[in-house]
């Protein structure tokens, strides 16, 4: 930790610019792509960007389409959607939700046990 502050150093609570980001998208109508938004663990909507393609693949998988945007362009694209939070390089994500299996009722109303 540096004991001396320099004028060009950001304040500790100010995020440093993220630079160019790999931004997850999804197909839109026609040839366009649409910004993919996520939710934080507390439920707030957030735009997400990754600092490198391998980080995106590690979190979202190789099949996730993405585009390259600057931090300011990503913020500008998310702002009209009411999203002002930006998450860079999230590492934790939940696995996809599997469809629920239907229980097989028996004549007595108790689900049958697997043999």
Automatic annotation (TrEMBL):
NCBIfam families cross-referenced by the UniProt entry: SAV915_dom
Protein name according to UniProt: SseB protein N-terminal domain-containing protein
Positions of the UniProt region annotated as Disordered: 93-115
InterPro entries attached to this UniProt entry: SAV_915-like_dom
């Amino acid at each position: 930790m540096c004991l001396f502050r320099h004028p060009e150093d950001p304040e500790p609570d100010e995020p440093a610019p993220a630079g160019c980001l790999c931004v997850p998208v999804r197909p839109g109508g026609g040839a366009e792509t649409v910004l993919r938004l996520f939710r934080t663990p507390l439920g707030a909507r957030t735009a997400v960007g990754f600092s490198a393609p391998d980080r995106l693949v590690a979190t979202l998988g190789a099949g996730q389409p993405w585009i390259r945007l600057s931090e300011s362009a990503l913020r500008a694209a998310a702002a009209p959607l009411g999203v002002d939070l930006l998450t860079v390089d999230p590492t934790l994500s939940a696995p996809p939700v599997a469809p629920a299996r239907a229980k097989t009722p028996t004549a007595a109303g108790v689900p049958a046990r697997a043999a």
